[in-house]
């Protein structure tokens, strides 16, 4: 005589598939309020785990350096400025997508996300400052480690590539203070807007598109990004240090008129202004104004 075995409730097929609520639509964007909370969540999590955040920043810096290297490779030998910028942007675009999808960290994103957490009273100003310092240090070291390996390798990174890297490095480092500052503001206005839209989107396709747009836009726009510039300026310096045949230019490591340290200070300030004043504050203000009256 056969015995009927009853399946556990968790394994039984539902009588009817649940209907999809409007808020479950993968193509419907989240509200601004939900988006700023998600972005702030990211900053709070990073601040709560400083050692993990440092490692995430190191890896994120290396990912930016991926884009620096590839953008220089594809633009080497291209004489038309617009075409060269377009190719650089296309090659650089996936760097930010890699960082966001992998959960690694980029200081310019942390500038905006951290301020949102401060405005929501979920992070202190001191913790925000610590977040910026750890992220900046980790990203900078990550870029320089990757760039050092590339420079030491030589090979395809000499000749025309080295000349292209030197030209871009001189151009980035040689801009006047006001120009570099305002271009850095524009950079994070592009980049952090795309980050916010990444967290606002529900579908993977939309997120990838928004993540790609930010670095694509700031590269083809000729703007200044503090961590990307560590790669663009540091790589030709390292090439000339490892190889006597590489171009030796006016750029240097210090605080001179074409110094990497000078550019680091100026672009950090500009990126901070762009990502906070022009992105984080307006989005948080919209979220507050859209709250229902109590």
From TrEMBL:
<comment type="similarity">
    <text>Belongs to the FNT transporter (TC 1.A.16) family.</text>
</comment>
<feature type="transmembrane region" description="Helical">
    <location>
        <begin position="86"/>
        <end position="119"/>
    </location>
</feature>
<feature type="transmembrane region" description="Helical">
    <location>
        <begin position="131"/>
        <end position="157"/>
    </location>
</feature>
<feature type="transmembrane region" description="Helical">
    <location>
        <begin position="211"/>
        <end position="239"/>
    </location>
</feature>
<feature type="transmembrane region" description="Helical">
    <location>
        <begin position="259"/>
        <end position="289"/>
    </location>
</feature>
<dbReference type="InterPro" id="IPR000292">
    <property type="entry name" value="For/NO2_transpt"/>
</dbReference>
<dbReference type="Pfam" id="PF01226">
    <property type="entry name" value="Form_Nir_trans"/>
</dbReference>
<feature type="transmembrane region" description="Helical">
    <location>
        <begin position="51"/>
        <end position="74"/>
    </location>
</feature>
<dbReference type="InterPro" id="IPR023271">
    <property type="entry name" value="Aquaporin-like"/>
</dbReference>
<keyword id="KW-0472">Membrane</keyword>
<feature type="transmembrane region" description="Helical">
    <location>
        <begin position="177"/>
        <end position="199"/>
    </location>
</feature>
<protein>
    <submittedName>
        <fullName>Transporter</fullName>
    </submittedName>
</protein>
<keyword id="KW-1133">Transmembrane helix</keyword>
<keyword id="KW-0812">Transmembrane</keyword>
């Amino acid at each position: 005589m056969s015995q009927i075995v009853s399946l556990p409730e968790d394994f039984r097929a539902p009588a009817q598939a649940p209907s999809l609520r409007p808020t479950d639509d993968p193509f419907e964007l989240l509200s601004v309020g939900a988006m700023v909370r998600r972005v702030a969540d990211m900053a709070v999590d990073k601040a709560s785990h400083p050692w993990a955040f440092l490692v995430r920043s190191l890896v994120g810096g290396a990912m930016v350096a991926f884009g620096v290297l590839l953008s220089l490779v594809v633009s080497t030998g291209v004489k038309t400025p617009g075409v060269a910028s377009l190719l650089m942007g296309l090659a650089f675009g996936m760097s930010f997508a890699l960082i966001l999808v992998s959960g690694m960290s980029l200081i310019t994103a942390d500038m905006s996300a951290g301020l949102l957490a401060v405005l929501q009273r979920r992070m202190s100003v001191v913790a925000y400052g610590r977040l910026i310092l750890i992220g900046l240090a980790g990203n900078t070291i990550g870029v320089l480690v990757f760039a050092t390996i590339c420079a030491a390798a030589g090979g395809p990174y000499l000749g025309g590539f080295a000349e292209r890297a030197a030209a871009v490095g001189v151009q980035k480092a040689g801009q006047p203070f006001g120009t570099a500052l305002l271009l850095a503001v524009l950079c994070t206005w592009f980049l952090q807007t795309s980050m916010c839209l990444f967290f606002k989107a529900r579908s993977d396709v939309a997120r990838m598109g928004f993540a790609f747009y930010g670095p694509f836009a700031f590269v083809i726009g000729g703007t200044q990004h503090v961590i990307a510039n560590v790669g663009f300026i540091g790589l030709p310096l390292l090439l000339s240090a490892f190889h006597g045949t590489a171009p030796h230019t006016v750029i240097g490591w210090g605080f001179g008129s074409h110094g990497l340290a000078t550019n680091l200070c100026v672009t950090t300030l500009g990126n901070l202004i762009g990502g906070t004043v022009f992105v984080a504050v307006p989005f948080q203000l919209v979220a507050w104004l859209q709250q229902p009256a109590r």
